[in-house]
Amino acid sequence: MEVGAEAFARRLPRLRRRILRAAFVALDTEFTGLHSTSLQNNEPSLFDSPAERYEKARQSVQRFTLVQLGLAIFSKENSNKYVVHSYNFFLFPSTLGIRDVEFTLSASSIQFLSHYGFDYNKFLKDGIPYMNEVQEKILRQRLLAGTWKVCSTSNADKDVLKKAIDEVTSWIAAAKEEDTMILQDLNGYHVLEVQLVLRQALENVWTEPLGDKKVMVKKVSPEHRQLLENSSYDHCQKKLILLSARGFTNLFQILVKAKKPLVGHNMLMDLMHLHDKFYRPLPESYDEFKRNIHNLFPVIIDTKTVIKSVRKKCLFPRISSLLEAYAVLCSSNLNPKGPPCPVIALASGCSRYAEKKSPHEAGYDAFLCGSVLLMSAHLLLCRSAGDAVEADPSFSKYLTVLAEHVNKVNFIRGGVSSINFSGEDGPCRHPPALIVHVQGWPGLTERQIYQEFKSHRFDVRRLSKNQFLLLSNQYKQLVLRDYRHHPHLQVSVYRHWRHSPSVNCLLQISGIVALWSLLAFALGGTSSC
Length: 529
Prior knowledge:
seven-stranded mixed β-sheet; alpha/beta; globular; Nucleotidyltransferase, domain 5; 21 helices; Ribosomal Protein S8, Chain: A, domain 1
């Protein structure tokens, strides 16, 4: 279930076969932070349009990195049964041949993941490398030019490399040609790094990985080494170096080529990180981002939008998390007369998830996500088709009943309910607003107003020099009551025709035009007399 750098390469062929056989795949990610607090006005707001929210999130995604990616592969094995292979991939940015990657840690996010048992040692010591297309192009050019380098800046990495070089240089002085020695206890990426560094430093050595954290070093003549470098048995060929440095990006490209339906929960940030870390740096254009994601994954389903539909059509209680939705769908008799929901069975290597809840572990959340999708789709199919539902519906039947939700990703706290990745977004609709008139408090900023009303969860936007708009889904009557006699802040319900600067400007212009017309009429009438 847990895959790090050391085991990733040998598991990749099996992962590829399972993805190609899958009905769909579900995904979840964990990152070092969500919203950067060091950026001004970066908090999500009810005022945000999708493009405004994308720009805010883009700046945060560029600062934070992925620590874990969960992938649940759902395959229909036989009649009305899906088998799930769920994986946790620990990730760490590639340090080979590209500029050293910098990322930010959010204290609250780190504390949150630690609370749920996240193993940061696996992230740091055995994280699978990855890179996007821009970084790969730089590495490819440097490999061809022979100007690559390893960005190992930690003391631990330097100690490993120094120890290996010291052992080999001490040994090689007295060694004869064809003599060999073994370097041991090399973890994950160090197996490749040590070989590359030794070959670059010493022209009369040859290296081969032996597995089990070992590398064989042989003393050879320069001529013999040249023959070995041109052979197909060289484990440090440039294409293999590139394959190793790309790491998890190889699996991402398998997902892209397979074009299987991709399922997530509140997955906007997941999609943005996928684009930025494995495909290309996020573009400035929101529309370009949407086009790119749709080309990569033509069928996306966000279970958050699906659950909203289930709540409207079925007697479904209010829930606040993916785990709660899973529990309700598993325990409730929401469809007593229809055919039973498909059996969802965890594969033998993933049985821990059947025995123990592991919220906010990416592989577990991916499993929950795919399970919620299947159970919700079955419920909606039974409601729409009634007695005509067959006992063993195909997954394509589920996709048909989910058609209105395909490529609609939930939009949290904003002007639209979802982002449409295969078309135009719907028009922005905001809840009724309040307006704050400021009197006797000069220089008041938008941030100060936000802090004033923060306890009531209001979002703020300046309307004019002394006026601010407030948006919230609740607490309006409470605020109107509490601020009725405030000495500096007068709060009232916003009326567009009364408070909008553009409407007021238009009325003023209309008044001036009407006044001039009346004056001209009066003067014209006087002169005619």
